From TrEMBL:
Domain of life: Eukaryota
Keyword Signal: yes
Keywords: Signal
Protein name as catalogued: Interleukin 17 receptor E like
Keyword Secreted in record: no
GN (gene name): IL17REL
Provenance organism: Microcebus murinus (Gray mouse lemur)
Pfam families from the UniProt entry: IL17_R_N
Length: 314
């Protein structure tokens, strides 16, 4: 049997909502086929790349119509497959009976629909266009901070099914890469759509540096989870590379740090490489950066450095 018997394989996501059962995601599978005298039907299978679970469906073609329509092209639609949001699937289409090499396959990522939004930077608000939902259901939208879970960053706003306006304004205080908006229909265990408008805006993370004069502690407290390495470094001039200080690699806290303008924090993370010099704008007393137990790191021009007190373990 020639491979050209199977013309195309089409996939799309649909959402089914009922007042009794709520909303569920479905995968629609369609195929374009050229009839062949040995073709008796089609089989479509969807395999989850995460769990390796497989669902299969078959469509059989009556023999009488088969003989009359050889060589003609048909559109075939399978019953919907039940899927879940963000699921990665491997879908195959084969003939019945199976012939070696005669199949089509595609990978597919399940989305739960889309939220349309626009960021009003002047007013510091995200304007969300709530989608029309089947079944006349109310809808919720909210802002949240994506950490271990998406934590509330504002109260959810409910849009009723008969609301004249379906645009919601969600104010925010700071543009953060983990600040996301979520939307879901007002049914139990509803699938939630999530979008993060500022996921590429990471500047606020590097500037989240705090200095506590009383304890002389320098800390970095980013509002979003970031994986990587942080260390102190010394930058002799504005365009010079930052020279990492020995034994200064710590998670987020440095006690007993002198406020030298050339003292900087170096970030090597999954979001990129950055250097921030928190004391560059004004000068503070002190000439040494005491960051290791029993020793100080000083600029090359200084020949003496007072011994640092012992540092408690962090």
């Amino acid at each position: 049997m020639p491979m050209s018997v199977l013309e195309t394989l089409t996939l799309s996501t649909a959402m089914k909502c009922t007042p009794q059962d709520g909303c569920s995601l479905l995968l629609r599978v369609g195929a374009s086929v050229t009839m062949h005298e040995r073709l008796r039907g089609l089989e479509a299978c969807a395999t989850s790349l995460h769990t390796q679970q497989t669902q299969c469906q078959s469509v059989h073609l009556p023999r009488a119509s088969h003989r009359l329509q050889v060589g003609q092209q048909f559109q075939v639609h399978f019953s919907c497959f039940e899927v879940s949001v963000a699921q990665h699937l491997y879908v195959t289409l084969r003939t019945v009976p199976h012939f070696c090499g005669v199949q089509l396959h595609r990978q597919y990522h399940v989305e739960a629909g889309k939220l349309s939004y626009r960021v009003d930077h002047r007013r510091k608000a995200i304007l969300v266009q709530v989608p029309e939902r089947p079944g006349s259901l109310d809808y919720y939208v909210r802002l949240c901070l994506q950490r271990f879970t998406c934590e509330d960053a504002g109260a959810p706003v409910q849009v009723t099914a008969n609301s004249a306006s379906r645009t919601v304004s969600l104010p925010y205080s700071q543009a953060l890469p983990c600040l996301c908006l979520e939307g879901w229909p007002a049914t139990p265990d509803a699938v939630r759509i999530q979008r993060c408008p500022f996921e590429a805006d990471t500047e606020a993370l590097w500037d989240a540096i705090q200095y506590h004069p009383g304890s002389q502690a320098l800390s970095w407290e980013p509002a979003c989870p970031v994986s990587g390495r942080v260390s102190l470094c010394w930058r002799p001039g504005p365009r010079d590379p930052c020279q990492e200080l020995q034994h200064s690699s710590r998670p987020v806290l440095y006690p007993l740090v002198d406020t030298q303008p050339q003292l900087c924090l170096k970030f090597s993370t999954n979001l990129g490489f950055q250097v921030r010099c928190p004391f560059q704008q004004r000068r503070f007393p002190g000439e040494c950066a005491c960051v290791t137990e029993g020793s100080c790191s000083c600029p090359p021009a200084n020949k003496r450095c007072p011994p640092a007190p012992s540092l408690p373990p962090q």
